[in-house]
Amino acid sequence: MAIFVTGTGTDVGKTFFCALFMAKYAAKMGIKYFKPIQTGEDSDRVHVMNLTGLNEKYFLKNYYTFDVPASPLLASTLAGVEIDTEELTRHLYSIRSEKILVEAAGGLYVPLKKSYYNLELISQSEIPTVLVASTKLGTINHTLLSFEALKKASIQCLGVYFIGPENPLRSDSIQTVLDATGMNLLGTFLLPEYRLSRQEFLEKVAGEFDLKEILPKLLSP
């Protein structure tokens, strides 16, 4: 089963979560990574590939790639291209039974074209989602709003995974979110203050990520 990886906002850790998941389970389970829409020259597909050291066979090519680091709506408009959401939805729907991590381009209400958002794409693709949230101050509001949007759209949320730095409010924020939503806590990954090298990243994965190995079960139909 495919999983849509979405987040409570931009730069909350969706790509890092995908890299963690891929590093630990891709080779073992034959999982592939797919980011349908990439904006900006800093490719998340390449970033995951570089962090994990995985062969290119585990990575599907972007459906759309735009140079401007902006919303897909603005980036595609500046490139003179209209994103064909119907075609993209059909493609995603056709691969929903495969073991693929599909990373959304930003949060749920990032527009792909006028009046069409990631939320609609996920819903129409009928792919369940994992919500990635920050450990920083403000995460309660952002996470609850995102969960309510998923619930209203009848999108299956498999759980929430928190990524970010340690802070004194982290545990309370996480518990508040869980109490308010009933979501499954899929885990927490505390980021160091410096950028991890590939070796350090892989050591962190081996030592800290998904110790109970609950995440692979999400890929079961």
Automatic annotation (TrEMBL):
Pathway: Cofactor biosynthesis; biotin biosynthesis; biotin from 7,8-diaminononanoate: step 1/2. The keyword Cell inner membrane does not apply. Its cofactor is Mg(2+). It is found in: Cytoplasm. It comes from the Bacteria. ATP binds at D11, V12, G13, K14, T15, F16, D44, E103, A104, A105, G106, E193. Its EC number is 6.3.3.3. Mg(2+) binds at T15, D44, E103. The active site is at K35. Pfam families: AAA_26. Transmembrane segments: none annotated. It catalyses: (7R,8S)-7,8-diammoniononanoate + CO2 + ATP = (4R,5S)-dethiobiotin + ADP + phosphate + 3 H(+); (7R,8S)-8-amino-7-(carboxyamino)nonanoate + ATP = (4R,5S)-dethiobiotin + ADP + phosphate + H(+). The keyword Metal-binding applies. Keywords: ATP-binding, Biotin biosynthesis, Cytoplasm, Ligase, Magnesium, Metal-binding, Nucleotide-binding. PANTHER family: ATP-DEPENDENT DETHIOBIOTIN SYNTHETASE BIOD 2, DETHIOBIOTIN SYNTHETASE. Homodimer. Belongs to the dethiobiotin synthetase family. This is ATP-dependent dethiobiotin synthetase BioD. The lineage of its organism: Bacteria, Pseudomonadati, Spirochaetota, Spirochaetia, Leptospirales. The gene is bioD.
